[in-house]
Amino acid sequence: MINRKLKNSSKLLMNISSAAMRFFVLFLSCWKKIRRIPSSTIRSIKTAAIRKPVRKLCHIAVDILFWGCIAVVAYVVGQTLLFASFRIPTDSMQPGLIGGDYALVWKPVLGARIFNLFDAVKGKKVSIRRLPGLRKVRRNDVLVFHFPYPHRDDSIGMHILKYYIKRCVALPGDTFRIDSGIYRVDGVTDTLGVYHRQAEMAEMADSTFQTEIFRCFPFDSAYRWNVKQFGSLYVPCKGSEVAIDMQNIALYGNLIAYETGLQITVREGQVFMDDKPLPAYTFTHDYYFMVGDWVFDSRDSRYWGLLPDDLIVGKAAFIWWSVDMRTQKFRWDRFLKKIQ
Description:
Layout: E1 7-8, H1 10-35, H2 39-43, H3 48-81, E2 83-87, E3 101-106, E4 113-114, H4 117-121, E5 129-130, E6 142-146, E7 163-170, E8 175-179, E9 182-185, H5 195-203, H6 211-214, E10 229-234, E11 241-243, H7 249-260, E12 264-267, E13 270-273, E14 276-277, E15 280-282, E16 287-291, H8 301-304, E17 307-308, E18 312-322, E19 337-338
Antiparallel strand pairs: 1-2, 2-3, 3-18, 4-5, 6-7, 6-18, 7-16, 8-9, 8-10, 11-15, 12-13, 13-14, 16-17, 18-19
């Protein structure tokens, strides 16, 4: 499987924001001293011809530094609360997004997230809070999110520089399945994802697929799910209680461990959480099922499971820049194209 990591300017942003905040504090203290230079000091300059230019140059330098700091702080605040740009490195979301596109995420739609950026950079687990947004996630929204398994296949985490972009086809509380290659949600008649690609996959013989592409989550002997026959899978919502047993712990064990931080074990025909029997669990997060539009080769929820709500960065709005990865030429036909 191709790694779908998105490359953006997060590392540069963190360096700029750290330096800008330190410089801004230092600048404010120095600015007051510069503004209070007494006239007697200025008069002490012996050469009268350069007295006025020096004072003027000093004030210009102060103004430039001040507005430069304001611009940097405004950029950091904008990146945190309003927007973010992500480069698309592969074609897993074609035809809507292709390699070389730059997608703009408008954060107020779903609500910007607040967390300790510096702890996240160090790899520590951070508490993430989301500001109120204009609306909730909808089916078929294209979302940018942190890949939930950046370090280990059996443990959900967050890597600050590892992003994916996929389409949401199942919401919290949905029951999702793939029936003969076609995506379905119980009680929903809307088309989910790119239907004609799913129909093409449905016509393909099972033997044409490589094993690592054909077999799907949770890769457990109790569930022989694949890209053409998958589920049914209940997608937990916040507050929903799910009975836990020896079979479905393969579906929900990582989610429970992520929410509680406790060890989930199976022994003697029973599931334990922190050495206490776990007959049922009430979820504290919403979850989503994410897929790539290029269904034949996309590392998505079919292979790694459900996405926690706090790892979602935001909804991709439009392509603000696009460069052909082979020729390096600008693609005007994709400029400011809305992401459907």
